[in-house]
Amino acid sequence: MNEKMKALGNSPSKIREIFEYSRGRKAIIGEENVFDFSLGNPSIPAPETVNSSIKKLIESENSVFLHGYTSAQGDMGVRQAIADSITKRFSVTAGANDIYMTCGAAASLTITLKAICNPGDEVIVLAPFFPEYSVFIENAGAVKTVVSTSAPDFKLDFDALSEAISKKTAAVIVNFPNNPTGAVLDNTEAAKLAEVLNKKSAEFSHPIYLISDEPYRELSYESPAPFLPKYYKNTIVDYSFSKSLSLPGERIGYIFVPDFVECGRDIYAAVCGAGRSMGYVCAPSLMQYAIKNCVFDTSDIAAYNTNRTMLYNALTDIGYTVTKPGGAFYLFLKSPSGDGNEFCERAKKHEILMVPSDSFGINGYARLAYCVKRETIEKSIPAFKALMEEYR
Ligand code: PLP
Questions:
Q1: pLDDT per residue as tens digits for the range 38-51
Q2: Average of pLDDT values for 288-313?
């Protein structure tokens, strides 16, 4: 067997580990008594259009067609609908042949990295970062370079990014709105990011691709997230409907390689090749057809916004240090002891389940996923108070 794969399989992600612990606790003390903030599983239903679209397809379409293979890169009509929505929403020209349908953002990322990287290439990630990036980058034969963002609001540190880019840098992965901090990028920062990448691409005489990992694109509460291909031409978008349409288990997303990307047609061909090499025959067909009718829809994210404000206000009142997140459904809480692991372990005694920030490449924090029922937040406040008392 492959020892590397065995080791990977034997070390499940910390998030999954806490999720399993929570199942055990819920079975013993009752679901309502566990304040489980561990998993980024959407807590609001998919919009009605998703269900009606699926029902209509099942009732009216030929079953052999509906459940059959689509083209490897996805059904042409579905890709056209997505491309049209991009053109309409962001005023960036997109065509069906710039879109490759995937099984969610995880597949979008593994395919994009495999398409772009050669052995030994470097890929920059911004800490704190989604833990699976490490696995995906290694799988592409590349090497991860970590650049820290600046606490307390975890904004991009442009000097640090500029310094970290070397002639071996193939790509930079960004994820705004961010998991785990909830940080968002504004238009000025998007322009500044483009400036740095253009300068470095010129310095090293090759394009440094920007991979925009966007499962939370629609979950931006104060203002819409900037669409990065508008700012930096060598951007590849890795999108997912997991969170925007509350469909994480259905595994559906896409890669957008704009036509104006340098070597764009070759990159798209490499995306098709990478997908093929990893056995992605096509994204689930029923889901492709279903989302074709929902490309302008999102789940009703008002409930997340309410949770965000409620939790942020309560935790700040208690005395915790936390920066108000602008997007996604995560809140990054500073450990009162300075140690994220110790904090999360201690919180468990109060039945509060959070993910220590070590999993995201930095120490000293805990991530709370606030995509939970409002009652969970309300009931958890006394427990957070009691937890803080232990540090006083
Ligand atoms: N990227 C980030 C930042 C995420 O938070 C997630 C999932 O939580 C993914 C990628 C993977 O998303 P998907 O479920 O669409 O594969």
A1: 999 999 999 999 99
A2: 96
pLDDT digits (tens, 9 = 90+) for 188-224: 999 999 999 999 999 999 999 999 999 999 999 999 9
Interaxial angle between packed helices 132-139 and 104-116, expressed in degrees from 0 to 180 and rounded to the nearest 10: 40
Bond into 152 cis (ω within 30): yes
Atom 2, ligand 1: which residue's CA is nearest? 130
Q: What single string gives the DSSP state of each residue in 87-126?
A: HHHH-----GGGEEEESHHHHHHHHHHHHH--TT-EEEEE
Q: Determine contact, residues 70/280, Cβ cutoff 8 Å.
A: no
**Alpha carbon distance, N-terminus to C-terminus of the chain:** 51
Residue 130 Cα: closest atom of ligand 1: 3
Class for domain 49-292, per CATH?
Answer: alpha beta
Four-residue CA torsion sign, 55, 59, 62, 63: positive
The DSSP code for 46 is: P
Pocket of ligand 1 (CB under 6 A): 40, 104-106, 130, 175, 179, 213, 215, 240, 242, 248, 253
How do the domains of the chain map onto residue ranges? 3-47+299-389, 49-292
- Identify the CATH number of the domain defined by range 3-47+299-389: 3.90.1150.10
How many C-beta atoms surround the C-beta of residue 51 within 10 A?
Answer: 12
